[in-house]
């Protein structure tokens, strides 16, 4: 019997400075990730930020007293309202940019950050080069539906995606759904405004033709409408970063509006108040279910290294969950399968005439 | 003192056959519109559908026994799943197409229909010609926000709008907001993915430049993100028909999901059940507030005649409300102001260099 090659662990850089709850919550998340076994015996975690501060915070957690925890100094912090391009110019010493530089240099396999989404997408796209066969990365969000969850991508990395780039989103999202949702053969739908052929314009029609031409290389179920996404139509909803970002933000806005309306109604009327107290567990459940990125992280797929965005308001559980999702996405040879799928997709693009 | 020209009333054709609740509800809506004074003393209403049936139904309503109620025979009905192009080819004798033909011929000033949205948009666009200065119509939906309502357009008529067409949407939506929301100087926002200049691609940038170049001819407040629309950022949200339709459908899907989740949670647990009973009025209020097109109608703006879409599930109040919105949109010289604004907009398009 041949001895199996020892499994090489994964190395993750955690940008500890960008979250709303500050570095103490990020360090607590790191401790939780070790305690819960999210970070395996072969994996290492690099805490990036004000090193003295991070070392002091880490000393409070027994789970972090081990050689798999490393530190990297970064002098500045990306603020939540920093303009993306300004970050690349004037905050090269920030924890976000330094973590991305480590990924670019191959020192780590993934970056997890709670920082400013737009800055992370811009800096991630520019600093970390696209995977072979990919042109632009796509941000993939996990969204709730009646039963379980689905993945929507792109939610904001590439606003004006071409048909080939939408096809890339489909294959990358399909592989990510395998690790993130545990679905062996995820159903892929193309978001559009009408399910008859010819609706949605030439860009959607060309993408539809490419997806059909993929044959059994992808489990394409056809065009889906906005109405279908919360049903059981598909597991991966493919769209461009303009539409996807607007949907995500609009849904968030609606959820907050409902929460505020429930809150103000409950306070305004004694009947509602009595009901509200009894309903509290239900409202809490609903709020949890409807919170975007509840699962903790949205990866920027299609780069040579994995960049994982965690919600800015994430607590330790949320950040630990983003670390888990990142490690799962790195595992099972996902990177290798993504390269294979992108090559298949590009062969289909080349072989499918424009007026298919 | 010169005698004022007697006010010429408006003529509305009501497609009575397309709604989920059938012609009896449409006829009851007509009666309600007369009873409530929505239809004024100078206005006339034409009921379009199976004439014998409509006359019989009308005979049950005293409010319809007057000379301002007319009937027009139509032999067939557009079904909710008829493909738009098939309707134009094979259902030329349907109540929807006949009502649109009356509008095209100048026999009426507006059509109100509860029929299949896609068929109505396609048939309305093709049968009724664009207003001078407009290229494509836009469907304008009234949406709820924390306080009051806002208008979003286009929600599905023109999926791939050019910058000039987005500018047309802005001026038409602005005038419609005056009549539908009663706001003298509606704030107009351009929906995009980031509020810095340069985000959202060249199409959004060009539209932004055109809107700025309009000066005080429009109350443009700048780019808005999905997150802002339920706040108080603006009264008119301008977008293309692809994005707008997907947002509208996705929000509807979410609202139905929340309703189902609340329903199933309430049934599954006695604590929730007790709370649910007490909360019932609140849930009903929320459902009403979140129901798209609660106001009853979405006009297809930018055509020579007004086509007003009412929700397929509208009851008599909903249909009467669509008739009211249609008459309000026709009043106050809105058509004339739309022509003036479109001419101003086109002058700005011609005068604004591509790289403004």
The radius of gyration over CA of chain A amounts to: 21 Å
Fraction of residues in β-strands of chain A: 5-15%
Quaternary state, please? homodimer
Coarse shape of chain A: globular
**How many strand units of chain A?**
11
Mean pLDDT value of chain A: 87
Distance between the termini of chain A: 52 Å
Stretches of chain A where pLDDT falls below 50 for ≥5 residues? Answer: 1-6
What is the highest CATH level, the class of the domain at 138-293 and 337-356 in chain A? Alpha Beta
Corresponding CATH architecture of the domain at 138-293 and 337-356 in chain A: 3-Layer(aba) Sandwich
Tell me about the biggest sheet of chain A? 11 strands, mixed
Structural class of chain A: alpha/beta
Please, could you describe this protein's structure?
Two copies of one chain form a homodimer. Chain A has 356 residues and is of the alpha/beta class. Chain A has a domain at 138-293 and 337-356: Isopropylmalate Dehydrogenase, CATH 3.40.718. Chain A is 46% helix and 15% strand. Chain A has eleven helices and eleven strands. Chain A has helices spanning 22-35, 51-58, 84-90, 95-104, 117-127, 163-181, 201-213, 241-268, 270-290, 316-330, 334-351; strands at 11-15, 44-49, 69-73, 110-113, 138-144, 149-153, 188-191, 220-224, 236-238, 298-301, 306-309. An eleven-stranded mixed sheet of chain A has the order 3-2-1-4-11-10-5-6-9-7-8, sandwiched between helices. Chain A is globular and about 60 Å long.
Could you outline the blueprint of secondary structure elements for this entry?
Two copies of one chain form a homodimer.
Chain A (H helix, E strand, L loop, with lengths): L10 E5 L6 H14 L8 E6 L1 H8 L10 E5 L10 H7 L4 H10 L5 E4 L3 H11 L10 E7 L4 E5 L9 H19 L6 E4 L9 H13 L6 E5 L11 E3 L2 H28 L1 H21 L7 E4 L4 E4 L6 H15 L3 H18 L5
Parallel strand pairs in A: 1-2, 1-4, 2-3, 4-11, 6-9, 7-8, 7-9
Antiparallel strand pairs in A: 5-6, 5-10, 10-11
